Amino acid sequence: MRYVVGYQPDERGADAVALGIAIARAQGAKLELMLVLGENAPYVAANPEGARVNAEEQQVLTAQRTALGMVPHDVSAEFHVRQGSSFAAVLIEAAVEFEAALIIVGAASNGLFKRYTVGSVANSLLHASPIPVALAPRGYHRTAPIERLTAFIGRRPGADAAVDVALVAASRRNVPLRFVSLVELDERGEHGENINAAHRHANTVLESAAHRLPRGHEASVAVAHGRTLEAAVDSLDWRDGELVIIGSSRLAQKRRIFIGSTANKILRALPVPLVVVPLEYEGAESRPLG
User: Fold this and answer.
1) At residue 242, does pLDDT exceed 90?
2) pTM of the predicted model, to two decimals?
3) Burial class (CB in 10 A: 0-12, 13-18, 19+), 48
């Protein structure tokens, strides 16, 4: 199993590598660290094997040493250099080529409570990728294995694919799993039935999941509510080693990601890394994301 990690020699690149290590340790995956250069950049080789190198090649060699130097010995990793006019397009092309289960990138943040503001590369991936995309918040340095998966569930198209990915990933190495249903409260206060319906749906998902998880696997449900979706997310408890999984918007094309308004609201409040799963994603069983 492989993950493609979008690497640049900056803080965002370091965030992506750290998240890649954390997920790979939880799932036994190999990291394909991808440095993407501009289409018109002079061709450079990552491994000139002792030959004299020019300035551009030296920069690549430095990036290679830095990136691989972050990866601990218990995680397999390889460094690649590719060129293209679009960073996101190159990552998607590489992920398809490697049959990767996940694309991992660092997401920009405004620095307050690790809230996200998605940068251009992440934004492109979140509207085009046929493969799940993981976003690391700015300053994400935790490399210990992911210790719990949280899947946001709903009854709209897109939710089933996220649940499937979460179940396969959780069961692979017995990672605890939590299903969360969010309820945005009605301004008129008429929200009792919505909360009850969310509880019923969450328990139905948990009951179904129990038949697909190993016996004794730790799994739970939670219903969070607030005046806004952001407030509902804030009301939840979060572990340092948490990873959230969410499905694409119903507006997405089949087997593609499209992050809608609900996911955007969640993203703004989320203090932990996020994985977005394409609509009707069918790779979960054969290529669990981790």
Assistant:
1) yes
2) 0.86
3) middle
Over residues 186-195, the pLDDT tens digits come to: 665 546 677 7
Contact 219, 209 (CB under 8 A): yes
Of the candidates 240, 248, 243, 280, the residue with the CA atom closest to the CA atom of residue 264: 248
Domain that holds residue 236: 148-277
Look-up of token digits 């203090």: 271
Flag whether 289 is in a domain.
Answer: no
Contacts of 32 (CB under 8 A, 6+ apart): 2, 3, 4, 5, 77, 78, 80, 94, 98, 100
Contact between residue 245 and residue 219 where contact means Cβ atoms under 8 Å apart: no
Identify whether residues 18 and 125 lie together within a single domain.
Answer: yes
Which residue's structure tokens are 């009792």? 192
First-to-last C-alpha distance (Å) of the chain: 9
SS3 letters across 13-70: HHHHHHHHHHHHHHHCCEEEEEEEECCCCCCCCCCCCCCCCCHHHHHHHHHHHHHHHH
Q: What are the start-end ranges of the H helices in 102-191?
A: 120-125, 159-172
